[in-house]
Amino acid sequence: MILITGGARSGKSRLAEQFAVQQGDHVLYIATSIITDDEMAERIVIHQQTRPAQWLTHEGYRELGRVIRQRSADCDAIMLECITTMITNLMFDKTGDIPAEMMDFTAIEQRIMAEIEDLIAACLASPCPVYIVTNEVGFGIVPDNLLARRFRDIAGRVNQRLAAKAKEMYLVVSGIELKMKG
Questions:
Q1: What is the pLDDT of residues 65-116, one digit of tens each?
Q2: Which of 112, 101, 93 is nearest to 157 (CA)?
Q3: What is the 3-state secondary structure (H, E, C) of the chain?
Q4: What are the extents of the domains in the chain?
Q5: Which residue in the list 7, 14, 44, 47 is annotated as catalytic?
Q6: Taking a C-beta distance cutoff of 8 angstroms, is the pair 142, 149 a contact?
Q7: Catalytic residue at 26?
Q8: To 5 degrees, how large is the angle CA 170–CA 28–CA 134?
Q9: Among candidates 114, 113, 90, which has minimal Cα distance to 103?
Q10: What pLDDT digit, counting tens, does each position of 140-170 carry?
Q11: pLDDT digits over 22-64, tens only?
Q12: Which pLDDT does position 173 carry in this prediction?
């Protein structure tokens, strides 16, 4: 499991794609985004157009450990993009549009961490390398609203857990990668 983190538009995805393509043609791309508006639909189309045509795609953000266990034997590499989008989708899976003040963040984080632990176990057992892209959300100011603060806290703890188990970890800033681990 190789973790690649950095800020928005830092070059994380490009680095993960470079690593994955070096492993061979049989790459499974796990896309955790869902279409929520026109902007997201446009972003998804751009990502689809820039990936190599022979790559397989799994679109989803739940039970990704199961997906990796089922598909890794047939792959040269797996790329998962991205953990922070996965966290966002899992946060709103059960809560929908209820106000942040009414959300049970402890239960939400427990569900997310259960998904992450299963994902980690699958990655560590995978016969092929798994490249995981995530956003570093802790470099900015403290958000001014409860939901954003809780998201940042959960994402930070998830990233720490992934980094602890990763064989290698890279931080990408302005298109330049720095190997942090491995």
A1: 999 999 999 999 999 999 999 999 999 987 878 999 999 999 999 999 999 9
A2: 112
A3: CEEEEECCCCCHHHHHHHHHHHHCCCEEEEECCCCCCHHHHHHHHHHHHHCCCCCEEEECCCCHHHHHHHHHHHCCEEEEECHHHHHHHHHHHHHCCCCHHHCCHHHHHHHHHHHHHHHHHHHHHCCCCEEEEEECCCCCCCCCCHHHHHHHHHHHHHHHHHHHHCCEEEEEECCEEEEEEC
A4: 2-181
A5: 47
A6: yes
A7: no
A8: 30
A9: 90
A10: 889 999 999 999 999 999 999 999 999 999 9
A11: 999 999 999 998 777 788 778 777 777 777 889 999 999 999 9
A12: 96
The C-alpha atoms of residue 151 and residue 139 are separated, in whole angstroms, by: 14
Q: What is the pTM of this model?
A: 0.93
In terms of CATH, what superfamily is 2-181?
P-loop containing nucleotide triphosphate hydrolases (3.40.50.300)
* Token pair in block for residue 71: 């598909």
